[in-house]
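Input record (one chain):
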Amino acid sequence: MAEDKLPTQNDNFAEWYNQLVQKAELADYAPVRGCMVVRPYGWALWENITSWLDKEFKATDHVNAAFPTLIPMSFFEKEKEHVEGFSPELAVVTHGGGEKLEEPLVVRPTSETIIGYMYSKWVKSWRDLPILIVQWGSVLRWELRTKLFLRTAEFYWHEGHTAHATPKEAKDEMYLILNIYERFCREELAIPVIQGTKSDSERFAGAQITTAIEAMMWDKRALQSGTSHYFGQNFAKAFDIQYLDQSNTLQYCETTSWAISSRIIGALIMVHGDDQGLKLPPKIAPIQVVLVPIYKNEEQKAQVMEVANKVFTELKTTGIRIKMDDREEVTPGFKYNDWEMRGVPLRIEVGPKDVEKGSVALARRDVLGRDGKSFVSQDGLAATVTDMLETIQASMLEKATQFRDANIHDPKDYEELKEVVKEGWAFSWWDGSKECEAKVKEDAKATTRVIPFDQPSSEGKCIVCGNKADKKVYFARAY
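The corresponding structure, as predicted from the sequence alone:
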């Protein structure tokens, strides 16, 4: 695997990405068009992501449940805007058990409809609220153009669905989750994201408000990395989710939904990866440290392995996710390339000279070459390695933030905006009109990514038409 070099990011970023996903053994193409097989290393990464999020959701009183994969077609027809938004992507089952079904069933693209139906059965009184449910699983959307992790027909995610008594409670929920997503990306994935609201044209089908986090990839395109939606009473009225309030008056619930999917792994690859392969932040990496013993004969092997086994046990006992690479059929150089391709944050080398000196060599994945290599004492190694992993985590976030900020521009006019979005993001005044938004999309192949919560206190002129504008928005080309 590691002997085949990747295409460089500069020469062919798309092919670099495709080959890296496969060479690092994260995923492979499935025999069904547009679908993927997530391999054990990729699934271990996804498990680290889901376990962190699951813990956060439970800490904020959310609970897990499971709903059917198949949804009656009539459910989608109850919420007009929702079905119009999803109809091109639906996979429909028309036969079952050798018979034509009385009603076609949709393989779930998202679960607002089936969950709305169930909530209408469960909610009767204000005492039943709020309902805070999360479902973990996969959904299917019949995508025309697919790319491993970023956009596949079937993908994995969690979807949160909540019901509340008041608009304020529902909106508070929406922002609570968005803040969890932002913190997760920043603290765990070392990805700096920008929070804000989607434009009306970009919001989720059926939502009144869609909030999102947007991240900049290495090729300077944007990737929507998580969303949190406020539906108001749209789904409550469609599915008759009503409750008696404290004055015994029948009211419709206010609902939300929110999700981060396995496409976040694609973001992780494209934010941090380089021409050698993956670079995984230590907090999320399935393997944080790889230990490579080096020897040339049996005498050296006995001495080196005694130290290597001691180091392995010490680090594993302290909770560090460590792997010993004691393969004898490949060279140390092959092992280095192999684990660099897989993005393991830190490599420890133990050779005969290290045994003599009571030291080990540490090699950082985020800083290749001499600058990333150091020799440290075997004494107190667990503490040294823990500190090094924290340094790597912080350094990766800092580098990604600097890169993002250096590639966000404030163009002086529309002509400059069209040039800026070819190789970066534009942060520009916008009058909020769909016409100006559509013009940028047609002329520059860029969309409004997010209207950030942090806005200038002044007003300006729309970068497209020159009309008065009271908000700035990020324009970018996106995945």
